[in-house]
Amino acid sequence: MATTQRLTDRKREAIIRAAIAEFRSNGFETTSMDKIAARAEVSKRTVYNHFPGKEELFAEILTQLWQTSADQMALSYRADRPLREQLYELMQSKMRMLSDNNFLDLARVAIAATIHSPERTQDMVARMNQREEGVNVWISAAQADGKLKPVDPAFAAHQLQSLLKTFAFWPQVTMDQPPLSEAMQQQVLDSAVDMFLGYYQVAAKR
């Protein structure tokens, strides 16, 4: 039983690796389950046994990319730690993900697929957005502790993450610019965190 399970897992991983290569090389629309099966050296039926369609397969790939930093992105708020230190750590995890070349390549594919056929990729985009909820949770906890001003956590989280994406995502995805240098990453992180806290942090009582 264990051997069969390992074989199934290996086939699934082979399918995902093959799909990544196909999506990166040919884009979302041109890639087919037949091509993925051929590259993975498995039958088309095997591919469909694991994934109902290429939308679900592509969403799974993006989910796995998010998972590489999921633990950090789900950083729990702690009242005994400095607010800025926690927020910087949370955004540093986000920056690592945005600087990953595989993630950037597949993000280009995802955006192109959404523009071409938004109705077919709504579920895929929804699953992508779920991976950003860790920041919302952290902000909510900080508000409950009286450290941040009351505002819609999703709105505030979107503002904060947009400060990073302006430098470390959109230029790379839309204009093919290289990932930021470490020095520039730190500059963007410092300024984003300070701007956010400068507006939303509740002043300490004297």
UniProtKB/TrEMBL annotation:
PROSITE patterns: HTH_TETR_1, HTH_TETR_2. The keyword Cell membrane does not apply. It holds the Pfam family TetR_C_7. Residues 9-69 form the HTH tetR-type domain. Keywords: DNA-binding, Repressor, Transcription, Transcription regulation. Residues 32-51 bind DNA. It comes from the Bacteria. One of its GO terms (molecular function) is DNA-binding transcription factor activity. InterPro entries: DNA-bd_HTH_TetR-type_CS, Homeodomain-like_sf, HTH-type_TetR-like_transc_reg, HTH_TetR, Tet_transcr_reg_TetR-rel_C_sf, TetR_C_Proteobacteria. This is Transcriptional regulator. It comes from Collimonas arenae.
